[in-house]
Amino acid sequence: xxxxxxxxxxxxxxxxxxxxxxxxxxxxxxxxxxxxxxxxxxxxxxxxxxxxxxxxxxxxxxxxxxxxxxxxxxxxxxxxxxxxxxxxxxxxxxxxxxxxxxxxxxxxxxxxxxxxxxxxxxxxxxxxxxxxxxxxxxxxxxxxxxxxxxxxxxxxxxxxxxxxxxxxxxxxxxxxxxxxxxxxxxxxxxxxxxxxxxxxxxxxxxxxxxxxxxxxxxxxxxxxxxxxxxxxxxxxxxxxxxxxxxxxxxxxxxxxxxxxxxxxxxxxxxxxxxxxxxxxxxxxxxxxxxx
Length: 291
Ligand SMILES: NC(=O)C1=CN([C@@H]2O[C@H](COP(=O)(O)OP(=O)(O)OC[C@H]3O[C@@H](n4cnc5c(N)ncnc54)[C@H](O)[C@@H]3O)[C@@H](O)[C@H]2O)C=CC1
Ligand SMILES: O=C(O)C1=NCCCC1
Prior knowledge:
alpha/beta, 8-stranded parallel sheet, globular, binds ligand LZCNNONV
């Protein structure tokens, strides 16, 4: 009888040496599409979220099985918005061999979460935004702000990337490290921007409809909790809303639940040609981190 060997430990450093946007963005396009096929290619239920009320945190469990890719894994993630001495999101991903059920690896999930989320937004932007965007505005200065800066720069040559955050010192730091233009208000950051990425931990809307140029694309990445919002409901209601998962969006996205907006379709359905990309309208990719 084969004896189970211990799973390999894969550190954040190991991950950062091998994970590249050049590979990850096409892989996310494929995964979003496979998830939306609806033929069992991907088996991924809506994640389980346990509120850890005593410590103002959340514990999320996200299992998934990609049948044709022969990949089976579970991400275990904590979201502690008030952390100051460590990241607000910490995760590990346990990889299993689907042929015999053996655990293969336990991988650090922090860097993977940052890059995977940004690669999914990049894939959505590629399919939903008008060609040749000039200005990218990033709202937020945390982990996702950096990964989205790099992922979208991998796809496009912007004339300008702008950044806004609620803490001026963090805006200056982000600008110094990336070359982005620091902005002191959201309005200044998003004026005439072609792509806006919201990556804040805000629970109330930070982006208003009257500040944006119509017909742009928005990656709405924060507010993955039913009573949190990043977008003004008027903006959501006047845009075409795409998601990664139609099943999770009405259960998990405060921006959709509280605005009572309709979801038009999944980005995967656009990639598969089953749904239209309304590039002449304002498009929102409400990301929930499903794929
Ligand atoms: N859709 C997805 O797949 C994923 C979504 N997320 C979400 O993206 C957001 C950013 O995540 P990280 O960059 O990892 O977090 P982080 O903790 O590294 O950064 C959070 C940023 O939000 C800002 N912020 C906090 N409260 C705010 C407020 N009230 N108004 C404006 N800004 C505020 C902070 O100053 C900081 O710039 C979070 O909401 C997180 O839950 C994170 C991972 C995956
Ligand atoms: O890692 C993910 O996926 C997350 N999804 C939504 C909440 C924050 C993290």
